[in-house]
Amino acid sequence: MARVHFRISHRPPPPAPGPVFLTGQHRGWSDDPTGWAFDDAGTLSADLPDGQLLMVKVRCVAPDGTVTEEGDAWGGRAPAHTAVVRGDTEVVLDVAGWQDGQQGRERPARSVPPTAEFTLPAPWGEQPVRVWEPAGATGPLPLLVLHDGHNVFDEAPSFAGETWDAGRAAQALADAGHPLRIAALPVGGERSRRYVPFPFELNDFHSGADDYCDWLLGTLRPPLAARWGDTPAAQTALAGSSFGGLITLYAGLRDPGAWGTLGVLSPAIWPADFELLRWMEPRTAPATRVWLDMGDHEGSTVQEAAEIVHLTHDLAARLRPKVQDVHVTIGEGHWHDEAAWRARLPGFLRWWVGVGRPSV
Predict the structure, then answer these.
(1) How high is the pLDDT of residue 176?
(2) Staple 122 to which of 28, 127, 265, 294, CB 3.0 to 4.6 Å?
(3) pLDDT in tens, 321-357
(4) How many helices, marked H, and strands, marked E, lie in the chain?
(5) What's the CA gap between 62 and 83, in Å, rounded?
């Protein structure tokens, strides 16, 4: 075990009196301050395993039990603090603000927003579709469909105040003579049901992934074709991260030929005791190309992260006989977060449209 000293270097006054405490991946993001409260000087010490990969946030709890999480200076969400425990360690936490009703709406834009939004009917209700295309685009272009569409463009609706900045990455390709379009699909509390194709605890043992895959082909693709012209499957990509990476791979193998390229970023393939690995055994998609990636800091410990990287290479080996091509990228120093996926997205886009070799 190592002694870890957490120190808040800057902290605005909390929104209500009460304990200010630390939570994180190592605590299952618990809202219980017991044993994890900072002292009046903003310090906290804890014994944690050497090699622990920490993703942590500061929260406060009011006398009525209301818990407020740290945010950015505009009351929006903020990404987790990260650190690796290597012997006795000090972790300095800069708290820019607290989340509030403004939800970061006054935050200056740092990324490229979508160029249009519309909704389509879906079994789960109205589904927003957030699209980006280069100025002056006409006729069919390569089309990328992205899961977790609330996280891929601007920060305001994003999960943690960070995005993939997909519009900027796509604009760079357009400027280089390789224009493409993006259709991104936000998801809410039904994420585990919609993206995980096997029954497990987080979807209450009832998956809606097949309904989602059917909707992608039967309800989403036709209006996109009517809007922009029919994009051949070979020029159509589907991509997502974590559970979004899982549903991407599932959809590509479930409907071979429907998606020419799959962007499988940091796939979370563990649900139902890695049922995906058994499910995919008899399936092939010989015309499909697969980008598969993982960060080397994804896991709760350094050892677990190394095992996940090994599992990623194993998944690639299982896929190679089934598909046209598999490209594997391991992001050095990358965590399981939007910042890592933002860093790797340009490489995936270049690989998809055939521009040079990606570098991460």
Answers:
(1) 95
(2) 127
(3) 999 999 999 999 999 999 999 999 999 999 999 985 4
(4) 8, 16
(5) 28
Alpha-carbon separation of residue 135 from 95, 116, 142, 180 (angstroms): 39, 12, 15, 11
User: Which residue from 320, 178, 345, 172 is spatially nearest to 263, judged by alpha carbons?
Assistant: 345
Sign of CA dihedral 142, 322, 331, 5: positive
Q: How many CB atoms lie within 10 A of CB 215?
A: 20
Q: What is the pLDDT of residue 356?
A: 57
Determine contact, residues 169/178, Cβ cutoff 8 Å: no
Alpha-carbon distance values, 213 to 82, 126, 143, 207, 280 (Å): 34, 16, 17, 12, 16
C-alpha of 285 from chain center: 25
**Cα 181 from chain centroid?**
20
Q: Report residue 5 as tokens.
A: 């000293």
DSSP letter string over 271-307?
HHHHHHHHHTTT--EEEEEEEEEEETT-SSBHHHHHH
Does the pLDDT value for residue 162 go beyond 90?
no
* Dihedral pair phi/psi, residue 159, rounded to 5°: -70, -40
- Neighbouring residues of 45: CB distance < 8 A, sequence distance ≥ 6: 3, 4, 5, 6
